[in-house]
Each structure stands twice: as structure tokens, then as C-alpha cells.
Amino acid sequence: MCVSFAEPAIMAHYKTEQEDWLIIYLKYLLFLFNFFFWVGGAAVMAVGVWTLVEKSGYLSVLASSTFAASAYILIFAGALVVVTGFLGFGAIIREQKSCLSTYFCLLLVIFLVELVAGVLAHVYYQRLSDELKQHLNRTLTENYGQPRAMEITASVDRLQQDFKCCGSNSSADWQHSTYILSQEAEGRRVPDSCCKTVVTHCGQRVHPSNIYKVEGGCITKLEQFLADHLLLMGAVGIGVACLQICGMILTCCLHRRLQRHFY
């Protein structure tokens, strides 16, 4: 009789210990996930900031603001991830179900934000080539060197120097430029930024030894640059999104175990 009474107590004790170990195991897993998630968030934010700060000079030559919008969304998502990561550490250590619920909701919000950024990047990637072909040549011929378009002028100059190119498709594109046909050009046949060594009025001489002659012009170079950046933003976003799915599953498991354990 004593044995039969003791058996349920032993089984209950064993089950409680098992539950305790499962909670500890889930806590460590979620803690490890949260660390990688926090690092991933910092990486997402860094990529977005780097894109805007380091490469913002090219943004004014683009027809739409989709590229910049994707970068801003990544920065916002990255900052939210960093803040959420700190909340996650607190929720895991304290084992508070309300904090875990908030943590789960924030993970879901970040996931949706990154999904929007990914869709924008994909849509922009699909129409990138057409936009550049239509807009860049018009920018060079109509807006370059104009008093009210100084930002565009600076962007084009930087673009040609950074990518070592001249003109939209070739240096011949500058023949139809409003700036080159005006008196302000002072005899230049291309802007000075087309020159391999930039000095005043160097654009008067269009020999290949003096200016950049690149097959495909600046369009090819800029298209490749933007495509690489969009792929980088997409890869970082997808990586963090996959982590988030794992995090949401672990958070739900820990929340359920804590509910069973305390009630």
C-alpha cells in the first residue's frame, strides 16, 4: 500500500524535474537565438546606414526613391531588432510570460517590416535596368550643369569618377547635353569628371588616353552596383527573417511550458 501511494508522488516529482529541465533547455536555446538575432539586427542596420551614407551621392540620379526606401526600412527594422533583443534578454532571464508575449509580437512586426523591404527590393530589382536606361540619359542631357540641379551635377560627377565611366552609354551621349551645348561648357566636349586625371577644361579633349571609354557606359556600372546592393540587402534581410521564425517558435514553446509549470 505504501508503495502504491509513493509511486504517484515519485512520478509527479520526476515529471516536475523533467519540465524544469525542458524550460532551462528552451531558455538557453532562446538566449542563444536572441544573441544571434541581436547581431543580425546590428548587421541589418549597418548595411542600411552604409548604403545611405556612403552611397547617397548616386541616389539623386535615380528616377524613384524605392532604393532609398528599402535602405530606410532596413535601418528601422535593424534598430527595432536591437531594442527587441534587449527586451528578449530580459524576458528570458525573468521568465515573465507577458514579456515573452510582447517579445513574440515585436518579432512578428519586424518580420513583416522586413518582408515589405524584401518585396520593395525585389520589385525595384526587376525594373532597375529599364529605369536607368530611361532616366539616366535624360538626367545627363537635360539636368547636368543647370543652376537648379547642382545636386544632380555633383552626383553625376561622382558617378563618373567612382565608376571610371563617361556618359550614359558612351561619351558620345554628352554631344546632346544642354550643358555641353551652352556657353558655360567653355568648349568642353564632355564634363571634366570624364577625365582620367581631372583638371580644369580637361573635357575639351575626348581622346581615349584622356577620358574614360567604357563599354556600356555608366548605366552598366551603376546597374551592377545597385543590383549587388539590393542582393546584399535581400540576403541579410532573409537571413534575419529565418532567425526570427526560429525565435517565434522557441518563444511560443517557452511561453507554453511556463504556463504549464506555474498553473
TrEMBL record:
Subcellular location: Membrane
Keywords: Membrane, Transmembrane, Transmembrane helix
Protein's gene: TSPAN11
Protein name (database record): Tetraspanin
A single Gene Ontology CC term: plasma membrane
Xref: SUPFAM superfamilies: Tetraspanin
Biological source species: Sciurus vulgaris (Eurasian red squirrel)
InterPro entries: Tetraspanin/Peripherin (IPR018499), Tetraspanin_animals (IPR000301), Tetraspanin_EC2_sf (IPR008952)
A Pfam family this chain is assigned to: Tetraspanin
Membrane-protein topology: Multi-pass membrane protein
Family, per entry: Belongs to the tetraspanin (TM4SF) family.
Parts of the chain that traverse the membrane: 28-51, 71-93, 100-125, 230-254
Superkingdom per UniProt: Eukaryota
